[in-house]
Amino acid sequence: MMTGFMVSMIVAGVMIAVILAIAIPMDRKYIVRENRRINYRKTTIFLRWNYFDTLTVVLAVYSVICVQILNFLISGGYTVENNYVQFFTNQSQAWTLVTMIYFVMRLTNTYKSIRAHYGEAHAE
């Protein structure tokens, strides 16, 4: 295995552990579940900015920085044999995908919460 790939996997593992350490307590504390389903009428966290949203913005900025550094490295003539190219390739792919998935989930949950709190007339 190449060094850049291994370091990228370790960094991703640490970052995932930090994200889960923030997300799991937030989920247990603020999201109201009834019969294993989210009760959007009682759950208000989707209607306001929270620290997980801030973390997601930080991840999005980190993804953009990784992509730009990768762009400069490849423009400079480095190939996939370079450890830095390997690292930034893996980081760019992973965190861009995670950020996009969270963004879609956040929009979906916010829409469901708006619909539950204000009815169908205000959701459109």
Automatic annotation (TrEMBL):
The keyword Transmembrane helix applies. The chain crosses the membrane at residues 6-24, 45-72, 84-105. It comes from the Bacteria. Keywords: Membrane, Transmembrane, Transmembrane helix. This is Group-specific protein. It comes from Alteribacter lacisalsi. The lineage of its organism: Bacteria, Bacillati, Bacillota, Bacilli, Bacillales.
